[in-house]
Amino acid sequence: MLSATPESPRMFESDFIDMFSRIPWYVVPIIYVPMITGFFAYGITGYQIGITEAVMLFAAGYFIWTLTEYWLHRTVFHWVPAASWGPRFHFLLHGVHHDYVNDRLRLVMPPAASLALAAFFLPTYWLILGPLSLPFFAGKTAGYLSYDMIHYYTHHGKPSSGWMKRLRAHHMNHHHNKAKRKYGVSTMFWDHVFRTF
How far apart are CA 108 and CA 25, in angstroms? Predict the structure, then answer.
């Protein structure tokens, strides 16, 4: 069991619930790489979606994820409701990450939360796209996986490529600059589009 430490403080009174708030980074690819592969492959083999069409749907899903990531971070994650429960809500959702920026166990979303969201969105996409939702959802999930892995790496990795160094500087500026900007984590594209660079 992953226990509270000064670097990773307790968030919940219940030991059981608090345990689920700490997730090692490698749990996310263990869960999502097979899911991504399975949805993509089943779209092709189970529903005879052509490879080119599947790749384009995958790319579209990935692209849509980057916008989703930006807007979630900019709006929901940094929203503090004007209510007595607002500060606690913000702390649980995202504030803990800003307050304890070096907490290695709270840099990826707990799978209980991300899988619940996936269980909601996949049927929604199915209603809209039918079988085409499978490669699309695989791409969106791959975008989410990239986001989580890049986020962890920007905090605890040692980037050697110019691109990763720029992403790291971009994200660290978000953390250490009081201005409301630089919300992109896996890409800086939307910060340029929406002038929050």
Answer: 6
Smallest CA-to-CA distance from 29 within 114, 136, 101, 131 is with 114
6 within some domain = no
Q: List the domain range (segments joined by +) for residue 113.
A: 15-193
What digits encode the pLDDT tens for the residues 34-90?
999 999 999 999 999 999 999 999 999 999 999 999 999 999 999 999 999 999 989
Residues 6+ apart with CB under 8 A from 72: none
Q: Which residues contact 123 (CB under 8 A, 6 or more apart)?
A: none
For residue 54, is it within any domain? yes
Residue 40 · residue 54 · CB < 8 Å: yes
Considering its fold, how many domains does the chain have in total?
A: 1
